[in-house]
């Protein structure tokens, strides 16, 4: 009988995450003349597999999700798949805050409590969104998979920003977009370099791909510098309303061009120059061989199940984001925290939580091309796709969302991109470079903490 894909995935996860203390115990017994390390470790994994298996087996030992009776097979298969999905990431224990946060928001509870509960609720929802996207993108192939990741990779930030834009919170939207980029290129990439550098003396990655991404980030930086300097250069020669109208015209045109550039980048990455992006991953696949073959068969969700999960999680994120944004005004008044700090530092931590963990884990496994793709690729999506989209959306719904950021924010963004481009230009990384990126992010966070609205 063919093993259920969820069972295969579970056995792989158990082998991968066997506890250190148990392994140490096995090693000790091996040295004392017992069974081999491999035999005892497989025995340890089988114990855990059997424990979960018994919950989904009948008295004859047959898995209930393979039962011939439809009314038994479907509920058992749903329960087993749901369990495997919920245990895919440790942060999913925070899912208990989802109904609690929604309940407090619906009953108009204390705004501070509503903010904290929904803040915590969005973290596991972001993890599930990332998980479902990964499951679906693998089934759809490289091209459609890339589009799916581009669409849903930053879905949490997009949903929170759309809700804030609808409510006229332009500063929150701008700060959230800028904060997401800074969080990815400084904090996430810095943690990748630091964690990977502590385990490996020096790591290398595809400098051609990194250079392409950093060039596009430089273009996105220019798209923010030009509106800010244009607004400042107008001075008092024009009324404020006339200046804002000119900036909006510039922002709308620039946003259309940025969206076209991102579309061309996808075509460049997935079609015409795919070999540049694949050349580093091919040797790794050859090295790991059978393990990757196993993992490709061990996916939990079918395309339909992953699609349904994406819809349900997106709805939950939208509800939590609504209550989160509605409570920001009270947080600003009671905690004396600026809207800029909330949007620039706090909200990106929620939206990028799953990406943070993924990037650091793959960096410790010496897969730096994947880590660079997650960190800088996500920043590029925000700068070239999400931000221009929100400007166009604001144009449609009548909100004056523009690319004109404050001069201080624009300078910070420029310096962050400049430092990142310097560090990745040689195609190598170490823990010192990671520490520099993290240090710069902390400095920027402190600056925005004292920065007035």
Entry keywords:
453 residues; mainly alpha; 21 helices; globular
Please write out the topology.
Layout (H helix, E strand, L loop, with lengths): L4 H12 L3 H12 L5 H19 L14 H17 L10 H10 L4 H30 L1 H11 L2 H12 L3 H30 L3 E2 L2 H28 L5 H33 L1 H5 L2 H8 L1 H8 L5 H24 L1 H8 L3 H13 L1 H12 L3 H30 L9 H18 L3 E2 L1 H19 L4
Antiparallel strand pairs: 1-2
Helix pairs in contact: 1-3, 2-3, 5-6, 5-15, 6-7, 6-15, 6-17, 8-9, 8-15, 8-19, 9-17, 9-18, 9-19, 9-20, 9-21, 10-11, 10-19, 10-20, 11-19, 18-19, 20-21
3D structure, described in words:
It is a single chain. By secondary structure, the chain is an all-alpha fold. It has 21 helices and two strands. The protein is 79% helix and 1% strand. The chain has a two-stranded antiparallel sheet. The longest helix is centred in the middle third of the chain and has 33 residues. 42% of the residues are buried. About 13% of the residues have low confidence.
């Amino acid at each position: 009988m063919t093993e259920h894909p969820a069972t295969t995935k579970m056995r792989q996860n158990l082998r991968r995450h066997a506890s250190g203390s148990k392994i140490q115990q096995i090693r000790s017994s091996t040295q004392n003349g017992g069974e081999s390390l491999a035999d005892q470790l497989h025995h340890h994994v089988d114990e855990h597999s059997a424990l979960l298996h018994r919950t989904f087996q009948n008295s004859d030992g047959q898995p209930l999700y393979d039962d011939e009776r439809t009314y038994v097979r479907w509920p058992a298969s749903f329960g087993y798949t749901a369990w495997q999905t919920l245990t895919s990431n440790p942060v999913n224990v925070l899912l208990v805050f989802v109904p609690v946060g929604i309940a407090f928001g619906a009953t108009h509870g204390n705004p501070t409590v509503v903010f904290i509960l929904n803040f915590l609720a969005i973290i596991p929802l972001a993890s599930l969104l990332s998980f479902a996207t990964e499951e679906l993108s693998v089934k759809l192939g490289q091209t459609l998979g890339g589009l799916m990741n581009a669409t849903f990779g930053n879905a949490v930030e997009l949903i929170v920003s759309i809700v804030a834009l609808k409510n006229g919170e332009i500063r929150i939207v701008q700060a959230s977009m800028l904060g997401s980029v800074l969080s990815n290129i400084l904090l996430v990439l810095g943690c990748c370099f630091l964690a990977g550098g502590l385990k490996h003396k020096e790591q290398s990655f595809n400098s051609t791909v990194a250079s392409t991404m950093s060039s596009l980030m430089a273009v996105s930086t220019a798209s923010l510098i030009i509106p800010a300097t244009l607004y400042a250069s107008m001075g008092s020669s024009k009324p404020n309303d006339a200046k804002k109208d000119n900036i909006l015209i510039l922002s709308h045109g620039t946003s259309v061009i940025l969206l076209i550039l991102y579309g061309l980048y996808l075509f460049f990455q997935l079609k015409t120059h795919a070999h540049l992006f694949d050349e580093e991953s091919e040797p790794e696949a050859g090295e790991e061989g059978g393990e990757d073959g196993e993992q490709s068969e061990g996916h939990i969700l079918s395309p339909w199940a992953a699609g349904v999960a994406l819809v349900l999680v997106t709805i939950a994120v939208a509800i939590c984001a609504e209550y989160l944004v509605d409570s920001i005004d009270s947080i600003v008044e009671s905690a004396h925290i600026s809207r800029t700090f909330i949007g620039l530092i706090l909200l990106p931590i929620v939206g990028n939580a799953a990406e943070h963990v993924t990037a650091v884990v793959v960096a410790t496994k010496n897969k730096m091309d994947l880590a660079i793709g997650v960190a800088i690729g996500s920043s590029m999506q925000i700068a070239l796709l999400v931000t221009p989209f929100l400007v166009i959306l604001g144009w449609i719904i009548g909100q004056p969302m523009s690319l004109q950021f404050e001069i201080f924010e624009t300078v910070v963004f420029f310096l962050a991109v400049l430092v990142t481009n310097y560090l990745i230009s040689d195609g190598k990384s170490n823990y010192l470079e990671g520490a520099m990126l993290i240090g710069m992010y902390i400095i920027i966070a402190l600056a925005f903490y004292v920065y007035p609205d």
